[in-house]
Amino acid sequence: MNRPSIKEVAKKAGVSISTVSRVLNNSAPVSEELRKKVEAAVKELGYYPSNIAKSLRKGKTKTIGFILPDITNPFFADIVRGAEDFLRKKGYTLILCNSDQNGEQEIQLLETLISKHIDGLLFTGTGSFNLLLEEKIRKGLKVVFLDRIIQGINSSYVIVDNKKGMELLLDFLIKSGHKSFIFINGNKETFSAKIRYEVFVEKMEKAKLEYKHYFTNFSYEAGYNFAKKIRKLPHAIVCGNDLIAYGVIDAIEEKGYRVPDDVSVTGFDDILFSKHFKPPLTTIRQPKYKMGMKAAELLIKIIEENKFLNRGIILEPELIIRKSTKELKK
Ligand code: RIB
């Protein structure tokens, strides 16, 4: 459908283009008669002004890009909601993109967002080093990493204290008598999986406990398929996120075992369904909405002050104890 131009509106109304512009922008007085003619022509032609020219003149489009790795994971929904609520209040529009945990797709999305002249970018990376992103940040693209830092790229970030979250969870499991563990973790290239792995191994070695660790990916299927193959159950199966834990619980119970009677299972994130799961999931709550809001707030500060900031905001995790874990006799 051809979009009517301001020239066609002027012709239809029998006035000059500058009169149409004055009426549309209320930029100078226009007689009631001419105003009515212009408004009638705008309505008849279905004209609406293009923001592109105005934005490019101002050097701002009031749009923010957000690239995240898995749109199907409810963890990110809460984060996006927190970011968008803040951005809307500041008059910005969010353009949301899903990289599907795929490095190539992530680069293509970044190129597309840059071609749309975004004012800034919220970024939860797949974890693969993104040379284009590093170059764009060096050339002035305003970016805040959300939930996942990219090693080797300097930028502001908002994350949860993953180390503290894992320590809270493992201290709870050890104190409640668990002595053997399997950790079914998320994608090994991601910041969050890496740091949780490091804390887990350090804690297991220090407490001289029996443990195994496996990187998979942050999905229900990964948890389900891995748990199906487990021959000997440990006291506890620690999962990289809640989706993995859901898959583990379903697989374990399909094999005729019960959670937590035969094995305790824990998650990470505390997404919406975890308190309703069967059994309700013991997990680490991430302050998802606040993470999104704080990241958007920091990005707008960087944009409006037009300066590079290398500021880190680390938010508090919370241990949420439910019925997927049990006290073991000492
Ligand atoms: O659920 C997705 C996981 O990856 C979360 O734990 C979050 O930290 C992200 O990095």
TrEMBL record:
Using the record's annotation, list all stretches that form the HTH lacI-type domain: 4-58
* Origin superkingdom: Bacteria
Question: A Pfam family matched by this chain, by name?
Answer: LacI
GO molecular function annotation: DNA-binding transcription factor activity; transcription cis-regulatory region binding
Ordered alphabetically, the record's keywords are: DNA-binding, Transcription, Transcription regulation
Cross-referenced PANTHER family = LACI-RELATED TRANSCRIPTIONAL REPRESSOR, XYLOSE OPERON REGULATORY PROTEIN
Please identify the protein, giving its name as recorded.
Transcriptional regulator, LacI family
